[in-house]
Specification:
103 residues; mainly alpha; 4 helices
Length: 103
């Protein structure tokens, strides 16, 4: 529905959709969690951009049906895996109530 986005944003959109459906059906369920929500860690990672995939040259790939994109190197994969998606900011906080135990 929103094109390419992070999993965190997709989960938040699902929560918003569920709340809208609940309200449309005439309910106003209060959701509570027994999970202790830790304080957000906003400065524990160095900001870095997304690793862009490399592509094979057009001249090389026009003669076959092999993959266009080349895999990441080990270093690029480690950087991408350690990239912070800010789940505490974009995911949980995007739903009604933000970082509360019940909403």
């Amino acid at each position: 529905m929103t094109g390419p986005a992070t999993v965190i944003k997709a989960i938040a959109a699902g929560k918003v959709a569920a709340a809208n459906i609940d309200q449309h059906l005439g309910f106003d369920h209060q959701i509570q969690t027994d999970v202790e929500i830790p304080a957000p860690l906003l400065h524990d990672r160095v900001p870095c951009g997304r690793v862009e995939l490399h592509e094979r040259a057009a001249e090389e790939r026009k003669h076959d049906f092999k993959d266009i994109e080349l895999p990441n190197s080990e270093e690029e994969a480690l950087q991408e895996a350690s990239r912070c998606l800010r789940c505490d900011h974009f995911g949980y906080g995007a739903f009604r109530g933000g970082r509360k135990q019940s909403w």
